[in-house]
Amino acid sequence: MPKIKYIEHTGKEHEVEVPNGWSVMEGAVKNLIPGIDADCGGACACATCHVYVDPAWLEKMPPKADMEETMLDFAQDLESNSRLSCQIKVSPELDGLVVKMPKSQH
Amino acid sequence: MPEKIVIIGAGQAAAQAIATLRAEGFDGSLTLVGDEPFAPYQRPPLSKTYLAGTFERDRLFLKPDAFYTEAKCTTIFGVAAQSIDRSTKKVTLVDGRTLSYDKLLLATGSRVRLIRVPGADLPGIHYLRSIADVDGLRPTFKTSKHLAVIGGGYIGLEVAAVARKYGLAVTVFEALDRVMARAVSKPISDFYEKVHRDAGVVFHLNTGVEGFEGKGKLEAIRAGGKSWPSDVALVGIGIMPNCELAKASGLTFGDGIHVNEFCQTSDPDIFAAGDCTRHHGRDGAHIRLECVQNAIDQAKHAALAMAGKPSTYREVPWFWSDQYDLKLQIAGLIREGDQTVARGDPASRKFAVFHLRNGAVAAVEAVNAAPEYLVGRKLIGEGAHVAPERLADTAIPMKNIA
Ligand SMILES: Cc1cc2nc3c(=O)[nH]c(=O)nc-3n(C[C@H](O)[C@H](O)[C@H](O)COP(=O)(O)OP(=O)(O)OC[C@H]3O[C@@H](n4cnc5c(N)ncnc54)[C@H](O)[C@@H]3O)c2cc1C
Ligand code: FES
User: Fold this and answer.
1) pLDDT confidence bin for B93, thresholds 50/70/90
2) pLDDT averaged over chain A?
3) Side by side, which strands form the sheet with B257-258?
4) Is residue B228 pLDDT above 90, yes or no?
5) Where are the domains of chain A?
């Protein structure tokens, strides 16, 4: 199973295994990693699953669909490496991925 | 602070209440009772990806089991609460156990409205509220040919979209003159009806179902005085709040358990959150909401109040529905008499309808249009006034609209 490292806003790190096919958001929620709210459960409808992708991984990221792109556009503290974690599907290529959570999801 | 909190009903609201109670420092005993044999799970995927078979059951659960252990929350699943004795502050479960509480949260959700016509108990007639319901319905999609959807609400239409993907013929029977009439405005209804028609769905509007026909199993729908062949049916004609416990224990209720701005019932030690409640919305209207947002936000406010930090519930309601490749997102509440402003062209499958009330943005319905939805939601929260001409002008980006 791919390993993903989640870094809380405070700097606290969590490295967990996430099944292929799940989303990066689910990997956090199912492992009780704080910092992602995911109110809509991954429907790309709430924008409370915002993360920053470690720049080293940006190239390997699956592209953003239109919906994610526009939802993100309105996220707080948007950066060029911002993503909605519910829209990143975990795959073997993402083994080792590092994402960081923002200060707040609201 | 209370020492013992009991939560009845293990759904979306319950899971949130547990998280908030512990985050807000409640350190007393916490017990969750649910009648389904599962930990709290998300219902939205039930009529979408879970029905389609692209989202496994494991993924439905809102929290991992470790959440309840870490939160020191005792869980009792598969057992219903039977009664509440408010004088002794005890809840009795159907298996005879009693639980005493200092504060009690009712998060009992809602149940499907049953159709009461001849033949309604024939095998082949399904409803959709729970994991068990989908597990009963999905296999029939592989063996059936013709799905009848009774009720053109969003759940019925989501199921219709999935069934078309399975290759079933789909016919929708709707008693009103347009689809999703309770939830959306006419332009949105008309758009979705067309999308479904283009996908091959047949509609009978203004057509109430009079009965189900078949020998030993469903064979036809009786509607508009005719028989329409069908070997599987999904009934989605609305839900009813689960208020029996509240009613039997003398709490104020009426199409929902009545709660104040802190999600407190007429008994100061009993709170309620989610689909089972009725509250005064932002504009004062007495409303009952059926959505994830309301379950989450009411649960947060109920938990805050139980933890001794009451805060007024005033969040803007929001909702979504997925059908085919379309995401419908709604914020605010639509009312008869609103001024509606269209933005964008439905033919582009990307457009929105804004609703203005006394000049202020009161609601937005957005199809594949996240900026309209997100900015709209913010404007509604602020009670902002925006000129209709500006809202309609797609040359002005949503970011600069206000
Ligand atoms: C198919 C479907 C699709 C949906 N899609 C969307 C969507 O896209 N977007 C959206 O915002 N909302 C959607 N909803 C609505 C949303 O799921 C509900 O609003 C939400 O689940 C309400 O949460 P709740 O905690 O109030 O109730 P629930 O999640 O229903 O939980 C209540 C629980 O309490 C249990 N219970 C009841 N009485 C007792 C008792 N006496 N003792 C013990 N347990 C009891 C019930 O069995 C249930 O398990 C959908 C609902 C369904 C059914
Ligand atoms: S979980 Fe709601 S948008 Fe990602």
Assistant:
1) very high
2) 95
3) B257-258, B277-280, B286-287
4) yes
5) 3-100
Residue B28's pLDDT band, with cuts at 50, 70 and 90, is: very high
The pairing of beta strand B326-332 with beta strand B339-343: unpaired
What is the rounded CA–CA span in Å between residue B126 and residue B235?
6
Mutation probe of ligand 2 site: the residue of A24, A29, A30, A44 with most atoms within 8 A of C-beta: A44
Q: What are phi and psi of B177, to 5 degrees?
A: -90, 0
Is any atom of ligand 2 closer than 6 Å to the C-beta of A25? Answer: yes
Is residue A96 predicted with pLDDT exceeding 90? Answer: yes
Q: Are residues B40 and B55 in the same domain?
A: yes
What's the confidence (pLDDT) of residue A73?
Answer: 86
The answer to the question of residue B122 being in a domain is yes
Q: Report the CATH number that the domain containing residue B224 is assigned in CATH.
A: 3.50.50.60
Examine residue B319 and state whether it is found in any structural domain, yes or no: no
Phi and psi based region of residue B109 (left: phi greater than 0; alpha: psi -120 to 50; beta: remaining): left
**Alpha-carbon gap, residue B325 to B158, rounded angstroms:** 11
Q: pLDDT-derived band of residue B313, with 50, 70 and 90 as boundaries?
A: very high
**Residue B285 in domain:** yes
Q: Inform me whether the pLDDT recorded for A75 exceeds 90.
A: no
Q: Which CATH architecture has domain A3-100?
A: Roll (3.10)
Residue B232 confidence (pLDDT) above 90: yes
Do A45 and B329 count as a contact with CB atoms less than 8 A apart? Answer: yes
Using CB atoms within 10 Å of the CB of residue B305, give its burial: 0 to 12 exposed, 13 to 18 middle, 19+ buried: buried
Mean pLDDT score across all residues of chain B? 97
Q: Could you list the residue range(s) of the whole structural domain that residue B144 is in?
A: 114-235
My answer on whether B139 and B156 are in the same domain is yes
User: In angstroms, rounded to a whole number, what is the distance separating the alpha carbons of residues B222 and B196?
Assistant: 22
Name the nearest CA neighbour of B75 among B104, B13, B32, B34: B32
**How many CB atoms are located within 10 Å of the residue B280 CB?**
14
* A78–chain B Cβ distance below 8 A for any pair: no
- What pairing do the DSSP bridges indicate for beta strands B146-150 and B232-235? parallel
pLDDT score, position A10: 96
> Would you say residue B1 has pLDDT above 90?
no
Task: Work out how many domains chain B is built from and give that number.
Answer: 3
